[in-house]
Amino acid sequence: MKPPPFEYHDPKTVDETLAILGRYGGEARLLAGGQSLMALLNFRLASPAALVDLNPVPELSYIREEGGQLRFGAMTRQRQIEFSPLVASRLPLMIEATRMVGHLPTRTRGTIGGSIAHADPAAEYPALVTALDGEMVLRSASGTRVVKPADFFKGFFTTAIAPGEMLVEVRIPVTPAHSGWAFEEFSRRHGDFAIVEIVTMLTVDNGRCTRARVAASGVGGAPVRLRPVEEILERDGVGERAIGEASARAAELVDPTSDLHASADYRRHLTRVLTRRALTRAALQVRGNN
Amino acid sequence: MAEPRKVSFKINGAVREGTTEPRKLLVDFIRDDLGLTGTHIGCEHGICGACTILFNGEAARSCLMLAVQADGAEITTVEGLAAPDGTLHPLQQAFWEHHALQCGFCTPGMLMAACDLLRVNPSPTEEEIRTGLSAVLCRCTGYQGIVDAVKAAADRMRSSN
Q: Per residue in A230-289, pLDDT tens?
């Protein structure tokens, strides 16, 4: 056997799940799609006292539109999102991002909640919710709270989810009218975690950029919204010159570290290049959509 | 140690049952308990794709699932691809004709991933085939024969439909 021994629970409801979590006081792990946790168990890098399997909890799997947002149950499979007509019409940027999450066979099992709760610093969904100012809904025995990305992602594989608490829903605002978007990432092989990724959504009304969203990932422990970059675009528009300035500013703002995959300098360079590519593509698209 | 659990699922059309510790991986259950050794184990952490099976009709890594999670599921492994009379699946036939394997270790995973790929996209471009097959690693062929085989199988499967 590869994984270390653990008690296995397969609750059918969120309430049941929370009751089990409470019993273990932080020593249990939730098993979502398993595309990261199972690998950690196989390597024995994780050895929880108990695994609480969320796969049999049907109430955690849905995609619906409500309050100007798409709302995803935490156990919604990445594959469901990839082929969802609702997501394709209301938030096509998410389809683009989803196709970069691993491979089709890993998206079969992998979930949005699992990806976000795992908080890999180069994963696509954390970058997406950060750029678009989404929300994470956390539940515990004592209630529900809604957490913004800047408060949720605390660093490498670290989130605001407290012991006894679980992520139940992810909310992302739908695409505003007159918008263009792009998700650009660089990885050595398709399906690998990216070295750097840039997500952007630009809204242009009557020639003015009324709303810019830009986030970078892979440049630190958590994805970062690049508000000063957005301000340049909202002030100067989305022409070639403003995009050049915004991309240079993006590279100044990030503070990456060096690791096995890339040096800090290289990540900074990629930030500039990918920001320019993403903004250029989004600007081109918004002109087409206007 | 956690209590052993009963697990029962349909695999290649037949219902099979067993009892397993919850920590046993689905791929180990398929190989060791059911004796279906066509599904290979490579990296055991979801990268290489050798263990890819169809889980309820969709390709998935059987090294990243527990056997107990398969209870009630419908699974197809490489043993279930050919017709009962031994006629090869169009993908298997095309792999043979296009020399899409050398050592054969990745082949079961390649075939199952390609099955899913062609179900989702029956007329893939070469680029789409390459993106789809990046889900499985082959260390021998350089992929060219595999890409040719999937293209040929796609053409054949479309014309026979």
A: 999 999 999 999 999 999 999 999 999 999 899 999 999 999 999 999 999 999 999 886
A234 vs A257: CA distance, rounded Å: 29
Cα–Cα dist A132/A215, whole Å: 8
Interface of A with B in 108-127 (CB under 8 A): 108-109
The ipTM is: 0.96
Interface probe for B, chosen from A12, A29, A38, A78 (most Cβ of B below 10 Å), is: A38
Query: Helix, strand, or coil here: A188?
Result: coil
Q: Is A8 touching B (CB cutoff 8 A)?
A: yes
Please answer yes or no on whether A7 and B2 come within 8 Å at the CB atom.
yes
May I ask the CATH class of domain A180-289?
alpha beta
Q: Are A130 and A217 in contact (CB under 8 A)?
A: yes
Q: Record the pTM.
A: 0.96
- CATH of A58-172 among 3.30.465.10, 2.60.40.10, 3.40.50.620, 1.10.357.10: 3.30.465.10
Q: What phi and psi values does residue A135 have, to the nearest 5 degrees? A: -140, 145
